[in-house]
## 1
Amino acid sequence: MGSLFRSEEMTLCQLFLQSEAAYACVSELGELGLVQFRDLNPDVNAFQRKFVNEVRRCDEMERKLRYLEKEIRRDGIPMLEIPGEVPEAPQPREMIDLEATFEKLENELREVNQNAEALKRNYLELTELKHILRKTQVFFDEHEGGASTTESMTRALISDDPNKHMGQVQLGFRDKQESLEFLPCFVAGVILRERIPAFERMLWRACRGNVFLRQAEIDTPLEDPSSSDQVYKSVFIIFFQGDQLKTRVKKICEGFRATLYPCPEAPADRREMAMGVMTRIEDLNTVLGQTQDHRHRVLVAAAKNIKNWFVKVRKIKAIYHTLNLFNLDVTQKCLIAECWVPALDLETIQLALRRGTERSGSSVPPILNRMETLEDPPTYNRTNKFTSAFQNLIYAYGVATYREVNPAPYTIITFPFLFAVMFGDLGHGAIMAVFGFWMCYKEKPLQAKKIDSEIWNIFFGGRYIVLLMGLFSMYTGLIYNDIFSKSLNIFGSSWRQNYNESTLTTAKSLQLNPDSMDYLQHPYPFGIDPVWQLAEANKIIFMNAYKMKISIIIGVFHMLFGVCLSLWNHLYFKRRISVYVEFIPQILFLLLLFFYMVLLMFIKWTSYGPSPPNFDDVRTSGYCAPSILITFINMMLFKTDPNMRTDCDDTMFAGQMGLQKFFVIAALMCVPVMLFGKPYFIMKEQKARASQGHQSIEASAENGTAGGAPVPASAHHDEDITEVFIHQAIHTIEYVLGSVSHTASYLRLWALSLAHAQLAEVAWNMLLRKGLQSQGYEGGIYLYVVFAGWAAISVSILVLMEGLSAFLHTLRLHWVEFQSKFYAGEGYLFQPFSFELILDSAGQGEE
């Protein structure tokens, strides 16, 4: 439990490993995940380290696995998850078998893919030729069947309307009735459908209109063998005269990536070719099916093991990458490493090293020595699935300085509680709690799904925070007696009404007066009395006064707790001076001013109350109750305002004015102590150290043992004293001004609580209330629609948006108002060599 309240004690160790056992020992440490290695070769290039070839081999194996994975995903084959435990890192000799397996799979798959692509290309060509023979036969049949050239044969190739579909076109003829027989040459081919308009335009311009083009769309899409995409194409046939035009037409077709195919002139030859093409297509279909089946079998076999292979390769790569951080001794037979380890886990690490040595068959045991160092160790806080989310909230502000107080365990309670003060609603809190409970209950199935959504992962990572925020909000909702802006009458009201029925039903604003006989002189047992829901005139005034004071009280106690935690830090680090010149003035400053203001609130609540007409003492009634804010301002200004109300006392208790003056003077005297105390004691220590150094030098000179000129030992301390003054001045100003601003900052608890309650009330009055007032059959339908709108607004705005707003404000109160009192956050995180972390980060990178 010590590491929960303070980070783990870390120690720097030196590790000696025999070369043969190094791989197995590092593998065991990676499974353990408790060692952070330091780079002992910072000046050596990554390509000049000892195990760079092994890392390259791992990179190559990983590349082959990614290629296999891409092909498996493209075919939609499910990859089996790793059953049971994650496989251990394989031995170095197994790398050769893995490389051979991956090489064989990649070569086989590439060969199959190449053959399949060639077959698909051949199939595409035959399919296009089949369509050409069919479409051109239609063109020739139209002509031989007596189809004369119509007006469409003389339409301009370049149309004013680019979207106008072009059919048969004849250009450049001297006579409209001229037959197609005068065009003895033609070419036929296939082109992408979207290129047809530009293709026709280019033919017109380049051939000066001396061509005749017919084109028809291929109805079914064709598969591109390179990209496997479905493309739409069109068949075209171009008639022209002369070799010069033939060369020009072929170049244009080549430029537009149109594929030309031979097309016989005689109908019998075309039919014979079409029959041959159909036969070859059938044969190709059979061969393609067999090729695809073989490819599928290869990928299915690979899909069963690819997850395991990825884990093994990544573990091997991580081990060799870690070994590159080590140093070689002079004999080249021993590897030397330096690492940070938790002091409590030294025995566990020793056992892991022993297991690695036994597994490698080495006879030389590893040596793990603790080292003394002045370097700041990394910060390591042990967490579990419950505390990790709260610890991450702290780390988002800054990693704790080594061994300083960890705010996370206190945040587990204070964070959801402060959130709930702003979000207090039994209904909305229940929605949030149910959502958080569902995520916690379905934790393992949801983790197994590995949902690739950043927003979902944020919610799921903070599922325990969401659950606690919902539960605490339900509690504060009961205190506020607020459920979807309505109240629960559990214990019966402590008020009685003296209005008649017509006033209750017709009056738009009623108010409650505690100084009347309406109040039964005993409070509601738990929370706010539900009758305040009906007091439209003074409900907000009452709730404002209540929530404002509660916010200040919570804020002052929260800050006092933060200052008390700083004492724990000072005592642990043995900073005796800081206890006297920082903690004591700081706690006195808060107590004498702001805690006194909290006491005044309690005095006002207990000393002043309702005073019905039959009570004679007016001085203890609400009529004479002073304003706490005015009293506090007058206290700071040493000012006394006489109570202008008759029969009322000027003060809340005897001796109040003298006590307040003493508190203010004492609080102001704490400021120079905070400002000059620490620099004064540091200067005093430096002088004492310097005088001791001179005395020892003089004593050694008298004995004849002094050699050379004496060097003042505290020269650098004299330079630092200026920085100490500046730092202390900044710290003092920040604390004094921050005490005022931070206390006021806690008023956000009141402001957001008021805003949330008012938004809930607006949603109820504007939507659901009108739906509930509707009557008849139509009213039921209207209520159904209105309830859906109200529920959507409640979840989206009042739960999600208001919840996010309250969450951010709570985060600020913890980071700035609370943690600034004791938390430095100047450390760096312990990042152990752990296979689990490496595999998790690799998995997230793939997603």
Note: The two ends are 36 Å apart (CA to CA).
## 2
Amino acid sequence: MGFKSVDKKRKTQVPESESDDELAGGFFDGVLSQSEDDSDFVADDDDDDDNDDQDDSASEGSQDDEDDEEDDDDALLSDDIPSDLDGEEALGKLLITDDEPEIEVPGVDPKRQDVGDEEKNYRIEKDANGGERYVYDEIEPGYDTDDTDAQGPANTIGDIPLDFYDSYPHIGYDINGKKIMRPASGDALQNLLDSIEVPKGWTGLTDINTGNPLNLTDEELELVRRVQMGLIPNELHDPYPDTVEYFTSIEEKMPLSSAPEPKRRFLPSKNEAKQVMKLVRAIREGRIMPYKPPEEREREAEEEDEVHFDLWQNEEPQDANPMHIPAPKLPPPGYDMSYNPPEEYLPTKEEREEWEKLDPEEREKEYLPQKYGALRKVPAWSEMVKERFERCMDLYLAPRIRKNRLNIDPNSLLPKLPSPSELKPFPTVCQTIFRGHEGRVRSVSIDPSGTALATGGDDGTVRVWELLTGRQVWSVKLSSDEAVNTVRWRPSKDSFILAAAAGEDIFLMVPSHATVTPSLDQVSRDILAAGFGYATHGQQQPVAVGKEPAAKWARPGTKLEDEGVLIRITVRSTVKVIHWHRRGDHFATVSPSGQRSSVAIHTLSKHMTQIPFRKLSGLAQTAAFHPLRPLFFVATQRTIRCYDLQKLELVKVVQPGAKWISSFDIHPSGDNLIVSSYDKRLLWHDLDLSNRPYKTMRFHSEAIRMVRFHRGGLPLFADASDDGTLQIFHGKVPNDQLENPTIVPVKMLKGHKVVNKLGVLDIDWHPREPWCVSAGADGTAQLWM
């Protein structure tokens, strides 16, 4: 019993002590009890009691640690019941404590037998009348008692909010008027552990009455879950019980009598008799045919035999194209389509007559506004079927798709070209006009030194001018019948030799000029005369008997020799083009009407003429030697063929795509080619890139007669057209083959007059300066600087 008294003292002290260490210790014990792995921990008797207390608290859930200790004490007392072997003395002592006291006087506490102070479970107090009053100790239910589900002390504060007790250590009073102490709250670490180790049934709520954490049982949690899910709270309740069939669905025909109805029950209907008579009368009059005629039956049979195919039977639905545009909706009706439109929308008599006279296709509207007194008087729309059909046809035959509109600035599509002012120098103005020829000036050429200009015209004369002053210094008449078609200087500074073609004759001459010294004149004459000795003593190619030679080399006569014309070469047809080789010993001539002998190569040092082509596909228009390599280019009407003079084979066929090639020129670097045509086009070719034109330019309204590159290293080229203009271009060819040529039109020169639809016929560049000379059909030659 002494052990019990000690426990009672501890019971009175525990509720008043709110030590955080004890609470934390209790929490950690609970945590450690879940691990069940305390092999290193040795518990004494007190620790065992505490563990039992914790087990009791886990089973009851709402009692304090002190109540658990009382339950343990009571459990120990209940376990002290002696057996038969313990003796009668212990049994008698137990009976004394268990017997109920006898009540002698009603309303007065019975007298108890004297027992020891240590064994008394009551105390004697005086009441208000001065009498004795026995106050018994409260019996705490233990683990083995039947009152383990008893609730803790109820808070009797009523409707008073718990916020009023925030400043007090208690939260209310129980039924006996005792203070209910506030449950201890853990520190930050305990709150963290509470958030990590959530006990079973934890809700995070607080009981309003007790202030303790509100934990729910499994049954209560299941009830809350079912309510949240919209289910019936009672799991055993069946919301859809089986229906009880009060009537069967089987019909059983069980007539009361199977006898037929008597005739006396039949009453004929007069209304039906009238309808029958109407049908009979209609059949007699032929308005109703009881049987279909044979023709109609045959037609129906044929229609039944016809097979109709469903075009859309196997059509599978497809997702709408993201670029699909839905069909536009019809516009809403206006005032003129109303059944009661305003007066200003109604047509007059003249407007109605005019509308009726027009054809349906020419009418602005397919209807005329009409006015009706009421909506029920409006007739059906006569054009509804036609209107719907046209609408369906529009939707079927006019599919729509959304196309993104490109917002592109037109100026951004143009190539970014440098400004012409940045590409100077190039010719811009006419400096000198050379007049003296009668008729057209067909050809011009500047000598390699850049001081003399040679011209040839329709008057059959060749004239030599001082380039800067425009003064004529020499002239010779080669023919009175034929025009001088072309003049070209020999491309060498060690001589002063000019070649000119008039009709079928080619003349080689040494003109007199202020810059020509006697030694230079003699050297030039020796070069021309050297071929005569070779022709006499050298080895000539034998000519077949009866075959005409390719050309005849001879002296022109005393009169022309005195004027400086030293050699005349006669070929088979009229010569239009002369082109010198870069070394000056060979030159090629082209006679477009010469057929097989249209192209000839002449050797000056041997006085020899050769026909390189036995058969040429197409009519030859012009020819030229490559400026660096042993290549020979021949242009027909549509193509330009390149031949290797060493290997004597065809190397390349350039296809400009022009209808009729007029002339071409090769860039000094030898990798690019420029072609002019009579169909107003200028075509740039990159020989290393393709046989098709790299760029096509159209800057003239008439045919282009001639095109020339500058030979002095300047990135310039020019063309001459029948519209009387010259177009100057900046054409730079980079050394890097990965870069494209830069072609920029910089200037259009106007000065020549158009005569009989002929403008500028020939053009030539100065060998060093950015100057050019043009020959016009107006009988003049002009120097542009």
Note: The first strand starts at residue 122 and ends at 126.
## 3
Amino acid sequence: MASVEIVAEHERILREIESTDANCIGPTLRSVYDGQEHGLFMEKLDGRIRNHDRDIEKMCNHHFQGFVDSITELLKVRAEAQKLKSQVTDTNQRLQDDGKGLVSCMDDLRRCRLQQRNIATTIDRLTHCLPVLEMYSKLQEQMRLKRYYPALRTLEQLEQTCLPRAGQYRFCSIMAENIPRVRTLIKDTAMSQLRDFLESIRKHSNKIGETAMKQAHVQRAAVGRRLRKEAGLGAATEVDGHGSSPVTEQDSGILDVEDDEDDEVPGAQELVDFSPVYCCLHIYTVLGAREEFENYYRKQRRKQARLVLQPHSNMHETLDGYRRFFNQIIGFFVVEDHILHTTQGLVNRAYVEELWELALSKTIAALRTHSSYCSDPDLVLDLKNLIVLFADTLQGYGFPVSQLFDMLLEMREQYGEILLKKWNLTFRQALDQDNYSPIPVATEEDYRQFSSQFPFQDPDLDKLPFPKKLPFSEFVPKVYCQLKEFIYACLKYSEDLHLSSTEVDDMIRKSTNLLLTRTLSHCLQYAIKKKNVGLAELVQLILNTTHLEASCVYLEGFISNITDVPPDTANTTKLYGTSTFKDARHAAEEEIYTNLNAKIDQFLQLADYDWTAAQGGGAPSDYLSDLIAFLCSTFSVFTHLPGRAVEHARLPGKVAQTACMSACKHLASSLLRLLLQPDVRQVSLGAMQQFNNDVKECERFARTDPVPGFQGDTLLLAFSDLRQLLDLFIQWDWSTYLADYGRPTCRYLRVSPHTALVLLEKISRLMKDTSRKGTMFAQFRKNERDKQKLIDTVVKQLRNLISAHQT
């Protein structure tokens, strides 16, 4: 079985050798020698070779006769070829002999043709060289006249057309070598002119911007006149009947425009010669360096933009500093806008927008910084109008300016703060200059004048003859007029900001509320709390705030009138004037109470009681008489105070009643503290008698009804604690006190055990003082002992009451 497999393998190898290229037979033979039966394979190979040899021999025998026939025919052809060669040689010799004359004639013809071609070539060369010389002469003339762009075109034509046609001549080579130097000269000259142009527009940017702003102002004024003409308004009208209206840019000195605005203002482009830019652009385009030129131009303009956007350190001091800053920026972008629309690709929209974004951010940052130093509201208002004109000018050239108007809205907060500071000084000055007295009116004309300044109506006062007095002081019409001036100032800033009437109305109302609740309120508090303010001044302040509170409704109508927004519009901000003046009035009332109590304390400091006196006098103390006289005169002034916010006649009001009651309570409590003060260790019944006389004087004052309006003996209730305490000790009615203590019908209901104990101990100490027994109670020793026992008993019972009450 193994021998059959070996034979089959050998057959496969032999077939592979027969069918495989000789170069690839190595692996096949290697497989034979790697086996164990290579001898048998060699026998097989020899047998196969013998078979192939037999096949080759058979094939050769089959084709041998054809080979012999082919050799025979080839020998016949060789004889015919020798014969043909001999005939060709004879024919060639005859042809050579016959063509010698023809060749001589052809040589002559060739020489003539060569001379003719040389002559034509010379004429052609001259024809091509003459234009070169003429073109070069033209180039020299153009260079002399500084017509560089035509010269560059001539140079291009000379290089690309004329010189190639002229050929390789020495003068052409010299010209060709000189062409790059001429190009470089033209390129450098054009760049020099561009640098001069850039320097020129940098210096004249201010003038360019000023002209552009004048153009925008003239156009806006023309549009305004047309709109007023269409609306039938004609000239600018007043906002209200007081003849005040917001100023325009020309009125405020923002623009130095001639009165005759119909004169044509030259265009900003007419002030600049852009030919150096166009020439340089064309030259660099022809030279294939347009990208280099664009990069250089943009780089230089970016540098100039950074210089333009650097404001002077003192720019905030005057409006001219801001104007120069804006003019330079406008001049820069007017030039760029013109370059954008008159050249193809030197600058593109993306490049200009990038520069504008840079300029806008730096301009807004500079304005925020420098405007923060400004403390003059007029300068801020002029700056706002200048910024509006600046924005309108650039908007006319297609630049987005919404961020500038957003910044103006931010500046409005700063403007409001500056206005508040200014009006704070104005209000304080008005308060300091006020005489706190009703305004005397001598004639009808004076009355009409004050009525026009302040909305005051009083039918009762109208019926009185002249001269008469208005209930408020001069502070009231001054403050009302200043409030209107503040509203006008806010309105002026809101103009031209592209805001709706509702937004303007809301801004004015919010600013006015700040003025009322912060500035005016603080000023009123300052006037109320300042030192040495008298009660009469406080009374007049209450009257003034009452009338100012009543005028708030007129301020509401005034704002609605100038903004054309009805007061009943939804979401309309209300003025906080009513609460402001109410708070100020309440503060003044509290100050009246405080000052009045302080005055009472000053009088009480003059009290000089002899607490050990044997007997009291028959008249009240001098200090108390002076105090009662002071209170009487004071409360006569209080009859000027109103009972309600709409009243202003001389009627007793709640404020006067409260002040009177407060003074009486403070006086009663102070007298009680004076009696019970720890420094007074001993009190005699005689001192109690004198103290009782003073309290009776106070009660007499209360009965005189110093301020009308109290019902019955209401004012006497302030002294009821003192009265019951004094009655208890003077009448020595301890049995009734101790028996009825705790009952609602007790006669001494307002006397506490602790108060009674303190005062009783002071009397007991005096009675126990041995240094005084020989003089004070010598004749009443038995009565003294009995009374001392009674005092000790009462003291013990009072202490029991106190202990029971505490538990």
Note: The radius of gyration is 62 Å.
## 4
Amino acid sequence: MAADLGELLVPYMPTIRVPRTGDRVFKSECAFSFDSPESEGGLYVCMNTFLGFGREHVERHYRKTGQSVYMHLKRHVKEKATGAAGGGTIPRRRNGKVFLDLELNRDFNGEDYEYEDEAKLVIFPDHFEIPLPNIEELPALVTIACDAVLNAPSAYKKQEPESWEEEIQVSRHARSLRQLDNGVRIPPSGWKCQKCEMRENLWLNLTDGAVLCGKWFFDGSGGNGHALEHYRETNYPLAVKLDTITPDGADVYSFEEEEAVLDPHVSEHLSHFGIDMLQMQKRTENGHHTDNKPRPRVSEWEVIQESGMKLKEVYGSGYTGIKNLGNSCYLSTVMQVLFSIPDFQRMYVGNLQRIFDYSPLDPTQDFATQMAKLGHGLLSGQYSKPPMKSELIEQVMKEEYKVLNWHQQKGISARMLKALVSRGHPEFSSNRQQDAHEFLLHMINLVERNSAGSENPSDVFRFLVEERVQCCQTRRVRYTQRVDYCIQLPAPFEAASNREELLAYEVKRKEAEENMRPSPEPVRARIPFTACLQAFTEPENVPDFWSSALQAKSAGVKTSRFASFPEYLVVQIKKFTFGVDWVPKKLDVAIDVPDFLDLNRLRATGLQAGEEELPDLMPPIVLPEDTRDNSMSSLDSPEIDEAAVMQLAEMGFPLEACRKAVYYTGNMGPEMAFNWIIAHMEEPDFAEPLTLPSMIDPGPSAGDSPTGAALLGNSPPEESIAILTSMGFPRTHSIHALKATNNNLERALDWIFTHPEEEESDALSDMADTEPNDNAFSNANSHSDSTLSPDGDASGPRVKDGPGRYELFAFISHMGASTMSGHYVCHIKKEGRWVIYNDHKVCLSERPPKDLGYIYFYHRLSSS
């Protein structure tokens, strides 16, 4: 038999590889679906590429690559027999060495289930099976390769130390921690450091109950390091950060181990000092906690998640949840909303087979493939099936709710997509909480880049903004247009309908703080939505405005209106601001957001009769003295204050954005650069690498060389050209715009709008190369035609203009004190009813908290 197997495998030996350092083994999830070894058909791992495939997709890989040998992994999960040992044991393996380092499915109770692993080699196309382990009968190379695959870490476990934060481990002091009986009791609020009166970044030592401040950070935030000094004096190892205690846990730090740790007994340790963690409510936005006494106001955590209500779970197509990978709820909520929009469904799920058939050899690195995979997982209903009646009867008979855990909603894991879309991004590639609005813009940017030459579903969000800038001295005006994807509405506290109540609360809060008493019940500002719109439309001052009429700096004001209305309108409430410590903080506001919205009155009107335009002149470029005589030599290596860059990067901003901020503010210090970041952080290319003039070959002047030579010596990056062409601009005109603006995308867009006279000839010359769908924007109504270009041609950005009447269909809500912490959920209106998506749980909403949303999504109503 050994000779038979050896002879059988001889033709395939050159294709069987042993995983080397750097190879990722995808043995926990299919590249095209969410099948795993626990799925009915198991998982097939290619013995050459080490990619994993479900039963429905392995044949495609075999036909495309000719790879014939796969390792089939199957995990059989079964309920333990009655009376089997439980008591905290983990699921029992019957073949413990087979799936070494394969993560357990954490959605079932380890005390009630056991599993059995099975592995075998499968040779295609005849599906010849060889059970493993089979050391005696297999060739040595095959045996070594099989053993290496079975013992290799899962693909994403291997890269986590590089791109994600390491998993927090249980402290070795947790079980045996000694606590002093010194009578210390911690009040529910009003804390301050025992040594320096600090009231922020406070840590409770779990041995003696000392409340002390944390370490000092470079930006002036943090504390004076008294908690660390206390450890050095006492060797008391564990401390809890006071403003992180919730019923779900708390942040624990071990001074001796010098890292964040887990404390399984943290509830007991806190109760020693009078903190009943399990009875406490979630912390409120201002960082204070509520005590055990009933409060008249329910916290936003409970309102937004609809806690305390018997929510009915829903199953089927469009009702699949997404597992939380650890602070990944910002991604889950955004993707749920995107795939509730027909354009995204049509692009990725409607073209599923075509995308899969034409996917590259490594589909885990292909954006369209992973979007199609997630879309199909959410919309197919394959991963959202209700429990069988027999299982429900079994639950009732046993009268044990936990027994049904295996059959309840588990959701799908977006780990593969997250790894792809966050690759190289310093924030989204981490395991920290992020801003859902920033991630939405990041996804729109990725969709734009990957839709060049094909349908672009993000067109539904794109609209034109008309900006009217007026010189206050000469009263002359300038009208410009820019592309945007979201409107940001301020939340004006001065317009709150309960302003008197807010003022009274602030007085009481200050009195309580001064007298070390518990803070009064917080009062949430209630702001009319009309006030937010009014604040958005009011004129704003233009900083450093240069008047081309005066040829000097002057005072200027800017107003914004809609030059076109998108098919889907995204509205962000500006709930987050920066405190004096530069840390983002959240405004505790409730906005009475309407279900129906009419913005037609905000339609742009263009230059009015009697208005005089500002001259089309650019401000003079002032170069340092040492660069004026050196031509482009200094531009080849511009000086960037790396200390300022690192100071900003340490605050959590993307490194490339920090470099651009320091460069564009002329190395005038981190404060100026910080202001630049705040003003530009919503732009889609905010975190893109700095594009310097040095990247352009200055070449000879137009008078010294033919046009063709200038074009060859000054070619913009293809990536920038693709971004502009994906917006609907002709390729030739996009290249001219980039060349005229030193490859600056933002300035290139402005250049296109201010040079419409060149568009017609460019459009004609480019017509032969234009895809059929490049005319999609020409279906816009007369408003769109008049705002895209004065000549009426359709070479502007692709927008789907129409009436400005909308209906609310989804909103994303945030709970917590800032974008760096907390939790996101989303509500989506489907089939006439609101549904709440809270990670893997999907239920019918009983009371959707529309007034506490962060990002709102409207779809346009038909003119009829």
Note: The radius of gyration is 30 Å.
